[in-house]
Write a structure and sequence with these properties.
single chain; about 85% helix
Length: about 350
Amino acid sequence: MKKTIISIVKYLAFLFIGLFLLWLVFRRIDIYQVVDQIVHANYYWILLSFCCAILSHLARAARWNILINQLGNKTKLSTTFYAVMIGYFANMALPRLGEITRCGVLAKKDKISFDSLFGTVVAERVFDMIVLFTMIFFVIVFQLKLVGSFVNKHIFSPLSSEFSTNITPIIIIGGIFIMAILLTIFFMKQFMPKISELSIYTKTKEFITGFFVGIKTIYKLKKKWLFLFYTFVIWFMYFLMTYFVFFTMEATSNLTIIDGITILAIGSLGMVAPVPGGLGAYHFIVKAILVELYFIPSAIAASWATLIHTSQGVLILAVGALSYFLIFLQKKKTKNELS
């Protein structure tokens, strides 16, 4: 009962954060202008982005099969695809629920150990995290002038101004910060047995362990190159999903391939944020990129972020629901064959 209440409170808290970020995105924008932009968008490009999305999800299912087969289990691509889509469907409601859901669906359908399946998902997520942060690194390197001017304008210039006029408070704050670090190290050494009993310590340790286990699993794969190929397909399709949507609106149609990679890489941080379906977080990050880096008007930037996020959300809801129905039919057919 206590765990259920904590889960509900956490969900509501993250939902509130998402809605608050969404409010920040739209608070000074004429909502009718946003609706007009979305209504008059060219939906031919949305359909193309849907095709890319389906291909990326199929590639993810095929890549997952490689990890599952490595454990000595056999699964059909169709079944794995249904499980992946049901997982995405669950993620729309509750962050991180999708990983558990897709493992549960496949474990029940193909009689595979849930723990072993969850281990493969951890390995998948570890590799995707490495790919994402590598992309972000190269985005910053190749767009150093653009990103650098943005950082200088919004971070370094205000900080240098504050530093020159408020040097005493900054020294005090810096001293407090250093003292806080030293005290944290001291208390950790003194109270390590009690700290190790805390759930946050256990979860952090499990995450770090899972990270290295995931890297080790991928390193030992027999089909490394096929795994890497599917990974390339997944992220290339993600890029096309973003790039094609540029052409839905005139104001964004002149954005380049590099701009598409930039929005994919940095915008993905909004999708992995612990809010339902990236709600608010994705809109906030993508709008900021479009407005601050590419000087797209606020209303159009908010419209574009809403269009790509909502359209992909609708696709996941539709295909996820259909996948649930189809996997139910598979189970029923299997039961009839056995009886």
